[in-house]
Design goal:
Helix content is 17%, strand content 46%. The protein is built from 3 helices and 10 strands.
């Protein structure tokens, strides 16, 4: 019995359904953030953005949609007092609102999205040396749940945000999706 955790670890490294990218992202998803990280993230993300994207996390179809890009727009603005950022996302079939805030007791940046589709997603975000990592727990309108990770990076000029999502589908097969957002103001 004492060898079971080691065997499980070896199986996960040799199982093709768990690529090294997925494993590293799963490990990164446990990171902590500081209040300064939150302020830095907000400075990068605030503004109006647009993108031809396959889906957004709050739509409830990430990793399971038809993959055809559609135009989504979002605006992120700081709430009064600068302790939270509000993000409103509008697409052809849905709209959603998010509250992004720093959880001082857990040392995490948290996001809660609610969508007109009925989907709800909860995220944690933290910084690494090269990018941001977002872990998402998504509840779709049918009540099904999924979890996935993303790396978020901003261009040097701050006008492009790239989100690379990866996870495992309902059948256990890995999926990837890359969305690129462009600042419009």
């Amino acid at each position: 019995m004492k060898h079971l955790p080691l065997i499980a670890l070896l199986v996960s490294f040799t199982n093709p359904a768990f690529s090294s990218d997925l494993l590293s992202d799963q490990t990164e998803s446990t990171g902590l953030a500081s209040a300064e990280d939150f302020r830095d993230y907000c400075r990068l993300a605030v503004g109006k953005w647009t993108g031809q994207v396959s889906s957004v996390a709050s739509s409830g179809s990430v990793g399971s949609g038809n993959g055809k890009p559609q135009t989504y727009n979002f605006e992120a603005r700081m709430a009064s007092g600068d302790h939270a950022m509000i993000r409103e996302v509008v697409g052809p079939d849905s709209m959603s609102t998010a509250l992004i805030f720093y959880d001082y007791s857990a040392n995490k940046i948290r996001t809660v999205y609610t969508s007109s589709t009925g989907a709800i997603s909860v995220h944690t975000i933290h910084r690494t040396d090269t990018h941001w990592v977002r872990h998402t727990s998504l509840t779709a309108p049918d009540g099904s749940k999924s979890e996935f990770n993303a790396t978020i990076s901003f261009s040097e000029d701050g006008n492009t945000e790239t989100i690379e999502m990866r996870g495992l589908g309902q059948d256990g097969s890995p999926w990837r999706q890359k969305n690129i957002w462009y600042r419009v103001d």
